[in-house]
Write a structure and sequence with these properties.
Number of helices: 23
Helix content: 40-55%
CATH class of the largest domain: Alpha Beta
CATH architecture of the largest domain: 3-Layer(aba) Sandwich
CATH topology of the largest domain: Rossmann fold
Shape: elongated
Strand order of the largest sheet: 2-3-4-1-5
Number of domains: 4
Distance between the termini: 48 Å
Radius of gyration: 28 Å
Number of strands: 18
Structural class: alpha/beta
């Protein structure tokens, strides 16, 4: 019987309960050929990192020998008897997941970490009574168990516990730390970033850097590799495998196409392959590998088990993993609006990425913003075919990458956040009035609404400051409006003999209405905005931006719009190219 279990990240619970498990144990054969002192894997949240680390814990942990052989029976690694004899249940293990250390103050975050360390002491309570460990060391472990340790003892927790394990078992320990950067990410949101980075640097260094006698090796997972000047300062032989690394571990986290095909076959849902692919595929880890998000796949499968006609959803929308994009939209949307419009319209853009970003630098640099969105799974590297189809180099060089939104799920999340931003900052009434005037070719109505928005809702600090006529700010603002109402809104795409600014298509089923919008901008208060807008209309006609729309018989209404801006003033011009009577009850 095909059963999925949503929310559990415990390897034993899945295996013992007979729930569906995608076998990732072949990782062990690759990794154990030459494990580094410390290895870091960075992947977006919800890509199976915690379940993966739980699996490693059951494989290595010397205290779990009674249950592990049954759990791994039939999995890929069990076929390698030599490897299992050498490594399976042969070492003491510390498995610490920091993914839930989400607190609003530094003190509360430390209390949570202390609680998690206490749980490890409880799991290995035999250390409190072991005669192979001296009394002074046992007392330290006792304070960690009681959550009464001072900050110095808590900082040294990994060192204390691995040392005690070596004394007791006669073998060095393996340390597994899941979502190591989650406390730092939360600290950046709540204003105690420096304190948390200092603590994590000392905490990890004590357990992983100056601890070679007691440590067999360490494995960490997270979303980002925090800059080497902070958390990882001086770690010996750190191997980092992120989403830009080669193919060696590209399929270790997430589901490959072959794995998803097998899941769907086992579930009797092979006919829904295209739906799954459109909604949840598209992540590119390593050079060529396309990966699906496991959380979304399993969530949709669970819905389909209860309702065979269930529609796919943006499951990330209901998790804490979209906190990053919420923060960006709250403070940086106007700065990002033009590029976000291109991404949401299916565009591919080349962006400069930073090798080691920090959560603290989120608001300081556009490069950091795009890097964080890329590393967090909201953007992914475009395939060679897709990049070349849009006239973008698939290998720009340096730290430049061609980026796209990976799938329908993430696009819907961005659309939702755009809609939320506009509803909060502009209001539904004003938005509806603007769209109503737009489709009526009411230039005075559009001018009135746009100038009211610019005067009331937009700070002068957000307006473009350079002297060159750059339209990006206004472009992004308008595309955001249209995207909320009309998913088929595109920007900066090739058409006719050039690139239009914005194309809007409202598909009504039997017919469509469409518009081409050209945006002009000047920083010169003396320039005639009406003349500038007229020039935009001429550009649309001269370069035949509407050629495809004119050739589509379903387009029964076609408008040309040109809007010219100077700071918080604008002038609009419109041309009705094709028009049919419009139903009075139609919602704009």
């Amino acid at each position: 019987m095909f059963q999925v279990l949503i929310g559990s990240e415990d390897f034993a619970e899945l295996r013992e309960g007979g729930y569906y498990y995608v076998d990732k144990t072949d990782f062990l054969e690759k990794f154990l050929r030459a494990p580094a002192d410390t290895t870091l894997f960075t992947r977006p949240r919800r890509f199976g990192k915690t379940l993966f680390m739980s699996m490693l814990s059951y494989f290595f942990d010397i205290t779990k020998a009674k249950v592990s052989h049954k759990l791994f029976d039939g999995l890929a690694v069990s076929a390698n008897k030599k490897l299992c004899d050498q490594w399976m249940n042969k070492y003491p293990v510390i498995f610490l997941s920091l993914k839930d250390v989400g607190r609003t103050t530094y003190a509360d975050a430390l209390k949570k970490i202390a609680s998690l360390v206490s749980d490890i002491c409880l799991e290995h309570r035999y250390l409190l009574e072991s005669q192979k460990i001296d009394e002074y060391e046992r007392k330290k472990i006792g304070t960690l168990r009681a959550e009464s340790a001072d900050i110095n003892t808590l900082t040294d927790a990994l060192l204390i516990l691995t040392r005690a394990m070596r004394y007791h078992h006669g073998k060095p320990a393996i340390v597994l730390i899941d979502e190591y950067d989650a406390p730092v990410a939360k600290a950046a949101e709540n204003g105690y970033y420096r304190e948390m980075v200092d603590f994590m640097r000392n905490f990890l260094s004590a357990g992983l850097k100056t601890n070679s006698d007691n440590l067999q090796f360490g494995i960490l997972t997270g979303c980002l590799r925090i800059t080497c000047k902070s958390t990882f300062s001086g770690l010996n032989h750190l191997d980092c495998f992120d989403i830009t690394s080669g193919p060696r571990y590209a399929d270790t986290f997430g589901f490959t196409q072959g794995e998803v095909d097998r899941i769907l076959c086992d579930a009797g849902l092979g006919g829904k392959r295209d739906i799954f692919k459109a909604w949840y595929d598209g992540y590119r880890f390593g050079d060529l590998t396309e990966i699906y998000c496991p959380w979304s796949i399993m969530s949709y499968l669970d819905d389909l088990q209860g309702d065979a006609d269930a529609s796919p959803q943006a499951y990330w929308q209901n998790t804490s993993e979209n906190a990053l994009v919420k923060r960006l939209f709250a403070g940086k949307y106007l700065e990002m609006a033009d590029d976000m419009a291109d991404f949401m319209a299916g565009g591919c853009l080349v962006k400069q990425l930073r090798v080691n970003p920090t959560y603290e630098s989120l608001d300081s640099s556009p490069d950091n913003i795009w890097t964080l969105l890329y590393m967090s799974g909201y953007l992914t590297r475009a395939s060679r075919e897709r990049a070349e189809a849009q006239g973008v180099s698939p290998n720009p060089g340096g730290n430049m990458l061609p980026l796209v939104i990976p799938n329908r799920e993430i696009r819907d999340i961005f659309r939702y956040e755009v809609s939320t931003w506009f509803s909060k900052h502009v209001g539904e009434t004003r938005e509806n009035e603007l769209l109503a005037a737009f489709w009526k070719a009411d230039t005075e109505g559009v001018k009135k609404e746009l100038e009211a928005i610019l005067l009331e809702k937009v700070s002068s600090r957000d307006l473009p400051r350079d002297e060159a006529p750059r339209e990006n700010f206004y472009h992004g603002l308008l595309v955001g409006y249209f995207l909320v109402a009309y998913p088929e809104t595109y920007s900066n795409m090739e058409a006719g003999t050039g690139q239009y600014d914005i194309r809007i298509v409202d598909d009504l089923g039997k017919s469509k209405r469409a518009a081409i919008v050209e945006i002009k901008r000047t920083s010169d208060d003396r320039e005639d905005l009406g003349v500038l807008a007229e020039r935009g209309l001429g550009q649309i006609e001269q370069r035949r931006y509407d050629a495809r729309l004119l050739a589509d018989p379903k387009v029964t209404t076609l408008l040309h719009w040109s809007i010219a801006f100077c700071k918080k003033r604008c002038e609009a011009r419109a041309l009705v190219v094709r028009q049919v009577p419009w139903p009075h009850d139609q919602q704009y």
